Amino acid sequence: xxxxxxxxxxxxxxxxxxxxxxxxxxxxxxxxxxxxxxxxxxxxxxxxxxxxxxxxxxxxxxxxxxxxxxxxxxxxxxxxxxxxxxxxxxxxxxxxxxxxxxxxxxxxxxxxxxxxxxxxxxxxxxxxxxxxxxxxxxxxxxxxxxxxxxxxxxxxxxxxxxxxxxxxxxxxxxxxxxxxxxxxxxxxxxxxxxxxxxxxxxxxxxxxxxxxxxxxxxxxxxxxxxxxxxxxxxxxxxxxxxxxxxxxxxxxxxxxxxxxxxxxxxxxxxxxxxxxxxxxxxxxxxxxxxxxxxxxxxxxxxxxxxxxxxxxxxxxxxxxxxxxxxxxxxxxxxxxxxxxxxxxxxxxxxxxxxxxxxxxxxxxxxxxxx
Amino acid sequence: xxxxxxxxxxxxxxxxxxxxxxxxxxxxxxxxxxxxxxxxxxxxxxxxxxxxxxxxxxxxxxxxxxxxxxxxxxxxxxxxxxxxxxxxxxxxxxxxxxxxxxxxxxxxxxxxxxxxxxxxxxxxxxxxxxxxxxxxxxxxxxxxxxxxxxxxxxxxxxxxxxxxxxxxxxxxxxxxxxxxxxxxxxxxxxxxxxxxxxxxxxxxxxxxxxxxxxxxxxxxxxxxxxxxxxxxxxxxxxxxxxxxxxxxxxxxxxxxxxxxxxxxxxxxxxxxxxxxxxxxxxxxxxxxxxxxxxxxxxxxxxxxxxx
Lengths: 370, 307
Known about the structure:
The structure holds two protein chains of two kinds.
Chain A: H1 2-20, E1 38-43, H2 53-68, E2 72-77, H3 84-95, E3 100-103, H4 109-118, E4 123-127, E5 136-141, H5 143-157, E6 162-167, H6 172-188, E7 193-198, H7 205-217, E8 222-225, H8 231-239, E9 242-245, E10 258-264, H9 267-278, E11 286-289, E12 296-298, H10 307-321, E13 332-333, E14 339-341, H11 349-353
Parallel strand pairs in A: 1-2, 1-3, 3-4, 4-5, 5-11, 6-7, 6-8, 8-9, 9-10
Antiparallel strand pairs in A: 10-12, 13-14
Chain B: H1 3-32, H2 40-56, H3 61-85, H4 90-109, E1 123-124, H5 134-139, E2 140-141, H6 143-161, H7 163-173, H8 175-180, H9 185-211, H10 223-233, H11 238-260, H12 267-287, H13 289-293
Antiparallel strand pairs in B: 1-2
Helix pairs in contact in B: 1-6, 1-9, 1-10, 1-11, 2-3, 2-4, 2-9, 2-10, 3-4, 3-9, 6-7, 6-11, 10-11, 10-12, 11-12
């Protein structure tokens, strides 16, 4: 009898502890909306404190609160894994009265579509995906425009002609970034070589650091990353080489190493979309903003970047935002040598959104995404 | 083969393996006393935070490591009281310890996010570190790498050669007999749990002090579970824990290097490889039968003083 009791006690204690420390955390602020208020929900793939991707989405959420004050309440759930769990979190958020839900990672695409069918009155906004519905809009930023400028800087500044690239998953978003950076670097440095390591994670600082070391040991003197933690920046600083920050200004982790960083600024978009919902103007749209919308920005240049390189980078940025320059302008061949874009031709958005091939000159093969 | 590169690869393997060595030894000492503690992951992340916070406050490495060890011992003592005094189910309690540790570190650690700890100095071993290839690979590391190897020797000596170690093993093999001989089963297990917890926490602190001097929640990323598997893999022997940890570290680092070399194996396969190696090793060991497994006889069993 005593044995059974102690077992029951132990298990309930365990469950209690587990419940207290569930790795997903919901915002603690008052999430009950009052009459006439709009409730905006956000689900994040990583912790708000990642200092990168999720951090910037959360900044966008805070900007929405700032912009509309009493008219909105916001709520968020962080560290939601991409898969069935996302469906549960989304349904719960919709049941709790959210009017609009932003799902901020590529892997939330199918769960978003599925839950959106069950809640036709709730508006959904999915980041970086390509599936839409009457109540599902999509949005992304043309990060490849930023990658183009990074590639130019890397091509000019590398001494070993080797750029190390830490990639997460072989999805179009990431592949596009590698291609854009490579083409730009190649345009200013014909001898450039890219070494790519796939770490199969958005966020594993230990593994990202190990990948950074491996790339440096194999001769890379400039690192680019498409993962979310500042670990690689830190390794670059330790080893005395250069790196580009990802999603957020990472200069705190690499005061001398950071050349610049692509900064995602979601605030203008989030404010616009929540505003549209308040005014009853919301419609399912597909937004892909670049330098011109302010959704893609660059951190201040590091001290190591020489004046002529700064001028070249600024000129490219201006040309892109004015529409005079497209980072994917032919002639460009695919990796297998077949023609993708003829001279003067620019890539259409459809191909870019589904990009699943390397361009000519990148070594190694693309891991299949499924 | 470029010898400089080879040397760097070996260096990186040792660094990547060191957290696993500490955590594996921490789990081993507890299991040899008959305690199955699934809370290693939680102990590691709490150690990671405690060590990082101390280093950030400007204390030297020794203090940071001691702080991590203390935090680990404290957290482990909660587990010890629940399991030893209140007879809680060790499996459920261990799982709870992991979840609790992850949550606690995330909560307490949020203020440290976005800051970088000072870099730890390397202790190059005189003369030896000038040797070609192996000089850099083996003899110019941070002090914790040497400490991890030293700890394996100490634990081996303790278990094999000392009387206290003999008693600890007796408690792990058959707690009823040990109790009948007049040994304090609970007291010995309490010491094993707290010192094992301290070791696991030091392993966690290696992540935030040396490997990536920053703190973010969940950064142990499953290393505590690998450490638990390593102990079985090592059939509860300290030197085999080191060997297993280095094997695991090698596969992790080599898969990254093979990618940078442009060897095309699907990334998912490469990520699975370290875990596949662990599973294969486990199968090979258990295929040798009970003798090969050599698990302590009272492992995971609840001890009650019968009157």
